[in-house]
Amino acid sequence: MDIRIPSLLRIKPDTLFKLGKYLRKHGFDRIALCYGEGIEELVGRSIRISRDSSEITVVRQEVVHSNDVTDIMGVAFHLPRGTQAVVAVGGGVAVDAGKYIGFLNQLPVVAVPTAISNDGFASPGASLRVEGQRISAKAAIPFGVVIDTTVIAACPPRFTLSGIGDLISKYSAIADWKLSYHATGEAINDFSAMIALQSVENLVNHPDKSIEDLGFLQLVCGALVMSGVSMEVAGSSRPASGSEHLISHAYDRLAARPRMHGEQVGVATIATTWLQDNPQRDTVLRVLEQTTFLSAIRADPLDRATFLAAIAAAPAVKPGYHTVLSEPGAVERLQAHIAADPLWQDLLA
Amino acid sequence: MDIRIPSLLRIKPDTLFKLGKYLRKHGFDRIALCYGEGIEELVGRSIRISRDSSEITVVRQEVVHSNDVTDIMGVAFHLPRGTQAVVAVGGGVAVDAGKYIGFLNQLPVVAVPTAISNDGFASPGASLRVEGQRISAKAAIPFGVVIDTTVIAACPPRFTLSGIGDLISKYSAIADWKLSYHATGEAINDFSAMIALQSVENLVNHPDKSIEDLGFLQLVCGALVMSGVSMEVAGSSRPASGSEHLISHAYDRLAARPRMHGEQVGVATIATTWLQDNPQRDTVLRVLEQTTFLSAIRADPLDRATFLAAIAAAPAVKPGYHTVLSEPGAVERLQAHIAADPLWQDLLA
Amino acid sequence: MDIRIPSLLRIKPDTLFKLGKYLRKHGFDRIALCYGEGIEELVGRSIRISRDSSEITVVRQEVVHSNDVTDIMGVAFHLPRGTQAVVAVGGGVAVDAGKYIGFLNQLPVVAVPTAISNDGFASPGASLRVEGQRISAKAAIPFGVVIDTTVIAACPPRFTLSGIGDLISKYSAIADWKLSYHATGEAINDFSAMIALQSVENLVNHPDKSIEDLGFLQLVCGALVMSGVSMEVAGSSRPASGSEHLISHAYDRLAARPRMHGEQVGVATIATTWLQDNPQRDTVLRVLEQTTFLSAIRADPLDRATFLAAIAAAPAVKPGYHTVLSEPGAVERLQAHIAADPLWQDLLA
Amino acid sequence: MDIRIPSLLRIKPDTLFKLGKYLRKHGFDRIALCYGEGIEELVGRSIRISRDSSEITVVRQEVVHSNDVTDIMGVAFHLPRGTQAVVAVGGGVAVDAGKYIGFLNQLPVVAVPTAISNDGFASPGASLRVEGQRISAKAAIPFGVVIDTTVIAACPPRFTLSGIGDLISKYSAIADWKLSYHATGEAINDFSAMIALQSVENLVNHPDKSIEDLGFLQLVCGALVMSGVSMEVAGSSRPASGSEHLISHAYDRLAARPRMHGEQVGVATIATTWLQDNPQRDTVLRVLEQTTFLSAIRADPLDRATFLAAIAAAPAVKPGYHTVLSEPGAVERLQAHIAADPLWQDLLA
Questions:
Q1: pLDDT tens string for chain A (349 positions)?
Q2: Phi, psi of C260 (to 5 degrees)
C-alpha cells in the first residue's frame, strides 16, 4: 500500500527564519505565498528575511480572507506560469485555502501553521465554504509542514488547548471505528489506528504537559501531523473523527456562540468515552486537566441545552456513519448521565 | 513523497488462528508457505486449522534452513504459476528468506514472526548470505505483518530482550544521523526520525515494562514495525542504525561467541550514548534495567577484550558512514571510559 | 518514470450496450452519470438497457449544460456518499465537466465520447470556464475511455474531420517542441514524442481513409487516446500543441464566427508546417485531402483577414512558449506566403 | 492504472557519443558499466570519449560473459556504495545481466543495445540461467534506452531480421490472447494490445523496409521498445508471446542447432497465423518477404522434423496458457498443412 507523507517536516524553534533555505533545498525558488489575515504583520518580517537571503521569488502574494471556494478559485486559476509551490502561512483558513490552491494546480503545498487549534493542517483534505455551506473537500496531504514552536508558544492558550482537545479525541474516534467494524463490517486499518494512537500516547506520557514548554509543543505538533497521516493511510477521516466530532458538528449548527473546533471536540470526548466505557477515559480526563484544558472550559462553559441537543442531533449529521451513538438508547443514556454526573456541573452552564 | 507501508497489520493474541481469514480478506487464496526450522512443530497446527477453515491453498511449502541466497533462489525461481503471496512464519532467517523469495517474484509477502529479536521483519531489506558472507540486500517492506503476542510471550526471554535492545538503539542511531548532518551535510529526514523515535518513546513511557505482559509486547512489536517503516521513509537504514550497530557488526566478526544482534546493539548503545553526551542516555539505562535486559547481560556478560576491539574496528565497517565514532579520538575516549566506569564492570567480563 | 494510463479502454462498434458490464468488471456499481445536452435522447436507451442488465445504480444523474466551474462545483461537492465513479457521456463539454467532477472528488472517470472532434477526452486536463474566460485546468487522465464507433460514424462529418485536424497537428507541435529544445533548452521527452507520432502515423498509413469506415474510425479514436497519453507522459500539452494551436486560440478570440477547434488547428498546421520546412508537410496535405477535410474547408473557408491577424497575434497567446513563430520575421514570412501561394486561395475567403 | 516507462529514450544515429551527456542530465555521475563480450572493442571508444567529456565516473566496469544468476549476483551484491545507475552495453546477455544487477540493487538501468535481435532490452523481465536452465525472471523496465542506429545498421543482418521476426509475432500473440479471453475468460488489456499493435503497424506501413535504412531501423527499435511497454501495461508477456513463442521455446529444446530467437519466432508466426485464420497473415508474409527475412531463412532453412516436433511439444511448454494450439486437433491440422503447403518447401529442410 503506497501512501503519501510530507517530504519536508520541520518542527522546532525559529524555523521561520529558515523557511527559504528549506524551500530552496527542495528545489522551489518560485512560490505563491498565502498569508492569513493579520499574519503578515505577525511573522512577515522573518519570512521576508529568509526569503531574501535564500533568493526565493514570490511570484504571487495573497492575503486569504476566507475559505470560500469561489475566492480560492479566483487565485488558483490565475497563478503565474512556472509557480513551483504554494506556501500557506497562518491559521486554519489560510492553510486550507493554500492547500486547495495547490491541489487545483497539482502543485506541492508547504503548510506553515501559526496556530495549532486542530489537525487540519496536515490532513489530506480541506475545509471549504461552497455557497455559504461548510464542506470537507478532498485535497492532498501537504508536501511540507514547517512549524515554528516559538510562534506557537506565543499564541493565545485557547488555540493550543483546542489542538489538544482535537488530539485527545482519537481515543473516542478509534473506539467508534472498532465498534463500527464489529457492528457493520466496515474495514479497519490497523496501521492507521496504530500511528494515530501512538502519537497521542506520546503526549499523554510526557512528564511536563505545559503548553508553554517548547518540547511539549513539539510533541503536540508532531502528533497533529501524524493524525493527518493516519487519515491518509485510512483513506478517510475515520481514525480522527467519531461520535465526538458529530456532536461538535451539531453544536456548530445549533449554538448561538460556537467555540473552537477542538474545544468542543475535547468536551464531547469526555462524553463519548463514558458511553463507550472506554478504558482510556481516565487518561483523557487526566490529560485535559493537566494541560489546563478543563480549567479553561470551566472559566467559560459550553451551553448546556445546546450540548444536550447536539448529542441528540449528532447521529443524523453523517447518515450511515456508525458510532457509539448509533446504538439504541445511547443518546438518552448519555443525556441522563450528563444531567446526573457532578463532573459536568461546571463544564456546561 | 510516496512510501510503502504494510497493508495488513495485526498484532494481538491468537492472530495465528485468523491468518487464513486475513489472507482471504486481502485476496490471497494460493500461497507459498515458508516455515523456519522447528516452527511448524511449534505453531503449524494453528496455521493448518486457519488455512483449512478459510480454504487457502498452499501451492508450495518449504522449511527454510538458511538465508543463503543460492538456497533462496532455488525456491524463488520455481514457485508454481499463480502463486499470489509468500507467507513466512518463523524467526529472522525464515522471514528474510520469505521476503527475498517474494521480492524476486515481485509477490507480496506476509511476515509472521514467531520471535521479535530485531526489527528486520518489517524492514525493506533482507539479511542474506552470499558465498558465506552476510550482506544486506534491498527488498520490499512486507505487504503484511501478523504477530501473535501469545506466541511471542512464550519465547525464551532473550529473544524479546534482544528486540528491546534493537529498539532502544534508535536513540543512538538518530543522534548519529544528526551528527552526520552537521558534519557532512548528509540529508536528514525529519519524518523518518519522528516516527522512529515516537514508537520507542511509547515503549519508554509504558508503566509496566514486563516482557510477559501482552500489552507491553504489543507496544514492542508495534515499535519494531515502525522502525521498519522509518527505514522505508528514509530510503536507508540510517534511522535505525548508527555507531552502536557498527560496534555490533564488528563484534560479530571478532567474537568467539557472538550474541544475538539486539543484545550486542543494546549494550553498544549504552556506550555510544555516553560518547554522544546523549540526553536520552538515562532513559536508555532505565528502560534496559526495568525490562531486565541488563540483568540478563550481567548473568552472561559480553567479552571485554572483544568489545573494546569492536569499538576500535567499528569505524571501518562502513567506510564513509559518519557517526560519533568518526570524530578524532572518539574510540580512545570511549575505551578509556569503559575501563573506568563501574557500570561496565559486570556487563563485560 | 510512472505514468497513469486508462485502465479501461474499449473502442469498437456497440460498446454502449456493454458499458454496464465494463463498469461492473472494474468494480463500479454506484455511479454518477453526466449526459451532454441532447445526448440522453441520442444514446440514453442503450445505456439504460446496459445499466439495468448489469445492475448498476445511478446515484446521481445530471445533464451538463456548460463547462462553467461554478456549475461543475455545484454538482461535484454534492455527490452522494459512496459514489464510486463518474461516467460522462457526450461531447467535449460533458466529458470535461465529468472529468472535473471526478477530479474534485478524486473519483475515477469513465469518458464516453459521442463525438471525436478533438483529443481532449483522454487528456489529463479539462477545459473550463471561470468567470466567462476559458482556462485549461489540471485534472486526471480518465480511468476509462469507451467509444462506440457506430455512434461516431453517425456524427455529422465535421466533428470527425475536426478530430483529424487535431491529430494531424502533432507533426507541427512536435517540430515546434524540437525547435524549442534547440533554441531554449526546454526538455524534450522522446517517449512522449514517439507515442504521439506513432499513433498519427498509423492513421496516415491506413489505406482507406474514409470517415465512414469503422476500422479507420477505430484508428482515429485510438490515436486521440494516445495523444492524451503523450501529454500525460510529457507532463504538459507540448506534444499536442504548438504554433498551430496558438493560431487557433487567437482565431477563437478574433473571429466573428469561430470554427471547431480541430478545423482551425488543421488549417493552421498547413501554415506552420510550411514555416517549419517540415518534411511531413506533404503527408499533412495528403491526409487532409484524402479524408475530405480540405474539401469541407473549401466548402466553407475560414476568414482570410482573421486568419492573418491570428498568425500575428499567436506568439502573444502563451508568453514564453517557444515555437516557429517565435523566430524573427516568422509572422511576416508566413503571412506573405499565404498571400502568394495558390493553395490558400480557397481555404480562406 | 500506473505504469512505468523509460524516462530516457534516444534512438538515432551517433547517440553513443552523447551517452555521458544523457546520464548527467538525468543526475547520474557514478555508474556501473557492463559490456557484453567483445563489445568494448566495438564501441568502447565512443563511450569513453562521451564518459570523459561529461565527467562520468565508472565506479565498476565488468565484462558480462553469461546470464547465469550466480555470476550476476557476484557483481550485484558488491557494487560500490554510491553507485547511481547501471549502464549495460551489448547484446541480449549483457542487457539482461545489467537489468538484473540493477533490479537486485533497486538501481535504475540504462540499456544500450548494440543489436536488436529481440524485444528483451525494453521489457520488465530478464532472461537468466539458474543451474543451467533458462528462466524468465521478473525485473523492472529500464530507466533508459539509448540506441545508436549506426551501430545497429552495422550489425550482421541476421540480428535485425531476428528482431523483425520477434516484432511480427505480435499479430499471432494478440490473436491468441483474444482466443484465450473467449475460451477461458482471461482478462485482456485493450491498451496493451493497442500499443503493441500500433508499433508493429508503423513498421508494416513504412514504404522502405530496408534493414540498412536508418529511418526504418529507428522504427524497428521504437516498436521493440513499445513491445516492452505493452508487457509492462499487461503485467505479463501476453501481448508479445503466444503459440509462436511456445513453438520457438520447444524448438530451442529439441534442435541440434537452435537459431536466433526471432528467426524461430518469425517462422512460427507464419504457421500460427495460418491456424488462427488470422486476417493479418498476408501482411506478415509480405513484411517478412520485403525485409529479406524469408530469403535469409531460405538460404539456411530450419530443420523440418524438429519444427514439426516443436509444434507438437509447444502446448506443454507453459501448462494452462491457452493459445490456438490448445484447441482440439490443432497440432495435427497445422502439421498436415505444413506438409502440404508449397510455401513451407524451402523454409524447412
A1: 899 999 999 999 999 999 999 999 999 999 999 999 999 999 999 999 999 999 999 999 999 999 999 999 999 999 998 999 999 999 999 999 999 999 999 999 999 999 999 999 999 999 999 988 889 999 999 999 999 999 999 999 999 999 999 999 999 999 999 999 999 999 999 999 999 988 898 888 888 899 999 999 999 999 999 999 999 999 999 999 999 999 999 999 999 999 999 999 999 999 999 999 999 999 999 999 999 999 999 999 999 999 999 999 999 999 889 999 999 999 999 999 999 999 999 999 9
A2: -65, 145
Q: Are C125 and C264 in contact (CB under 8 A)?
A: no
| DSSP letter string, C116-164 | -SSGGGGSSEEEEEETTEEEEEE----SEEEEEHHHHHTS-HHHHHHHH
Q: Among residues 159-218 of chain B, which lie with CB inside 8 Å of chain A?
A: 190-191, 194-195, 198-199, 201-202, 204-206
Q: Is C9 on the interface with D (CB under 8 A)?
A: yes
Q: Which fold has domain B8-151?
A: Rossmann fold (3.40.50)
CA distance D215 to chain B (A): 37
DSSP bridge pairs for D62: D34
- Among D229, D223, D116, residue whose Cα is nearest residue D168: D223
Amino acid type, D154:
A
Return phi, psi of residue D111, to 5°.
Answer: -90, 130
Which A residues 299-338 touch B at CB under 8 Å?
Answer: none
Cα diameter, chain A:
62
User: Which residue has 493537566 as its cell numbers?
Assistant: A290
Q: Which three cell numbers stand for residue C14?
A: 456497440
Tell me the CATH number for domain B157-345: 1.20.1090.10
Name the β-bridge partners of D348.
D302
Q: Is D286 on the interface with C (CB under 8 A)?
A: no
Distance, in Å, from the CA atom of B78 to the CA atom of B273, rounded to the nearest integer, reads 47
Q: What is the C-alpha to C-alpha distance for residues D2 and C194, in angstroms, rounded to an integer?
A: 19
What is the pTM (predicted TM-score) of this model? 0.93
CA-to-CA distance for A328 and A197, rounded, in angstroms?
28
Cα separation, D76 vs C221, whole angstroms: 45
Q: So where are chain C's domains? A: 8-151, 157-345
